[in-house]
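Following up on my earlier thread - several people asked me to post the actual chain instead of describing it. Fair enough. Here it is, all 322 residues.
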Amino acid sequence: MMRWFDDGTPVGPASAPTPVVAALGGVSRVDVVLKAPAYTPKPAAGKTDEVRCFVLDPPAGDRPFLTGFSPRPGARSIVHHLFLAEIDGDDAAQVRKTEGQDGRPGVECAGGLGKVRSAVTLGGGLQGGDFPRSIGRKLAADHKLLLNIHYSLASLPPGAPPPQDQTEIDLRLDTTAREAKGLVVANPAWLIGDAMFVSAGQKDAAFWFSYTPTLLTAGKTAFLQSVTPHLHALASRVALRIERKGGNSTCLLEIPRWKFGWERPYWLQTPIALDPADKLYIECHFDNSAENQGSGPPPADFAWGESGQDMCAGFLTWTETP
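Reply from S.P.:
Thanks for posting it. Predicted structure:
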């Protein structure tokens, strides 16, 4: 470093090593196509967003590992993001009891799904592809799939009717794979009340949280494979890292100038070990100034939520071996 300063801080070559990432733009082999019901979002009065959940049957057959995931929204302009989860039969039955109660397919799920506790995320974002390094998520034959779609009409012209969406998801399935599991990094307190409160006009509101996921990893070393950040349009920066027992830290992902729509799985070039005593850390910044509102309405107070609000979460994929 000192030699670089002494030499006048010359600019180095623009080329950089190409990171190992999941293939984008589709899976290499389509084994099953999941199809959600046709749906036209209808946000509540004064809102631009709606989150809808649909219970789908899992793929039949003798290939239990999901090794690739590629969403194909029918109306891309209004699908902000989606994720596919697995839930047990009891939870699926509970969700299906409330389906269609408002006269439309699926069920409103922006505020969660009541007592549903078995949901395990299988894939998310809108940029799909094969999972790298022979990684797969094992599907249970007696479970159901839950498709969660966040619709946002913010990009439509004022007064324009929302288009109908019918999202399809291409799945690649295999008989064997290196089983991957999931971890979530977010402060549970942010999801309720004003624990993630940002006042109107605040230029840089910062929130952070860390925890030790020992119970979720059964006290073993976990090898982190991918990181998916989840934030909305008012976010300005996100960072996820490991806080080591000895006081050092390891960066997992940092996006210093977050842009709306950048949510996707970022596969690590090489797996990173998370030891039992380590903590997972997330930090999010938000810009609620007038300059960051564009041509939209003036700044307003917000907390965790969908329409005109924001979120701060990270979804990690891990395996028991590198």
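Residues 68 and 130 are 4 Å apart (CA to CA). That should answer part of your original question.
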